[in-house]
């Protein structure tokens, strides 16, 4: 490993020193990664009335910029004014998904008087350190396998989709030097910081950090190694040309307490209980000084959440603008979670708007998990929250002097372990106004325990639809069909809408290599309306949502059509068009309807003004056997494209007519004869 490591101490790519104009500004600035700056030995006298770290892309520091909040964790609606510092080491994360390539300078700036106290300029084309993707674990024993492992920084490994049977009696994560793993290695703590022998893993995504002062520049390999029997279960080699971010604490590894549910706290006896969703969701509560403690009981699956909170409008149940807590069991981390959410509108969270955890939109999770349990199909999670959190934008104060309208729902989790926007069936949320005075006692209307409710099987799924022989496709939006439709077909949760191709709910499409296909796209073209903006693209990802992905996550999928890339490598969707949607005439009746054709008769097709988008796609000869049509801005709207060789789809000479096309031809022929 000699000669590979950058000079110590390593802070990232050096940018320069602050130029001081006033107030004693000084410090050395480094680029840690694509979106993080490190200021070494920062100094400032703290006497200016309205000073902040300030960045922008004008030629020089100016009012046309924005704040980098420091400290990153703060209370109140506005970032705190910069305080005095004397040789402080500071990590700055660019907000709102910005990257270092998007800015030209960093300044200490007074907003009130528009004065630049100190500045440093970002060199054009700065090559910042980046995480490095490695191969997967070599598969040697005990079912060890993974997806591609990533070096996130000089001390942190990300191991996705880890499988290991746990049968090794003395196995550990193990690092060292040499051409192969050997006994002269060092144990690496597991994802919860423990050095106990490894448990079994079943497709989990974990992060581990090298102990002490050890860095990735000091090792040649990472393995799973049995110390007792001196056996290598599998390994991955560390390349010698790494240029990864320094380990300055900027990588938010999952803390150890996150993995350990609190199960020893005795269960309280509540005098208050309401059944919000019949046979599905109950809420119990009590005041504890400045806190309100709540326990939710939900008859839900392990891939579902339950949500409870204050309605977005008093006097009626309104999801938009509501402040809720989303609670669920995290099967990946094996922990019960309760998270603060703000719902700006009923769309999937895009990092700024939608059904969003507070932490994802720059606020704070003010919910404390007390305990959790799951048995007999019922998940119970106890948590508490301050009555007044001092977050004016995303948290409502909980009144205790009057009744307040509440909102509740259950629904599916997505791949990020976040709440998908639910489908608004009468059984999945409260359709009527329910009011609670949280200071009352003996408000107890629960008649039965959810543990006594019999589990009734869901409705029978509709058979999947298939399209073969078509060369033209019309893509519009429609409802998912509840438990009979999208989720039953794909096996993954949806968020209430899905693609309709040629008026069919997520059909499997068959295409031939070398042939050209046309898509007329009606998924919306206004990014300002995220719930009605669904550019279509073709990808190898079963999840889609390329526009939500950044860095390593974005590079995991390949776009085959509907996406262009700018000079900086950013994905730009091209498959936008007017918005057309199959809407319910009244309510979702999918649960009571046996066929998709009958279900579609309960819908009405509506289009906004404008023209459809157009996508012309020639299937590459090297295309894989399975691709997907998906939404660029949201996950899980589309389904499979089966790719076959020329002539293999069953229609000769490249002329393929589906049933609908044949009917159209017959109608046109009859019309011409008449």
Residue-averaged pLDDT, rounded?
Answer: 86
Estimate percent helicity: under 10%
Shape: globular
Rg computed from alpha carbons, rounded to a whole number of angstroms: 28 Å
Q: Residue ranges: pLDDT <50 for 5 or more in a row?
A: 253-267, 651-674
What is the distance, rounded to the nearest whole angstrom, between the alpha carbons of the first and last residues?
84 Å
Please work out how many helical segments DSSP would assign.
4
Q: Strand-residue fraction?
A: 35-45%
> Structural class, please?
mainly beta
Biggest pleated-sheet summary: 7 strands, mixed
Count of β-strands: 43
Summarize the structure.
The protein contains four helices and 43 strands. With 674 residues, it is mainly beta. InterPro entries: DM13_domain (IPR019545), DOH_DOMON (IPR045266), DOMON_domain (IPR005018), Spindle_Org/Thrombomodulin (IPR052126).
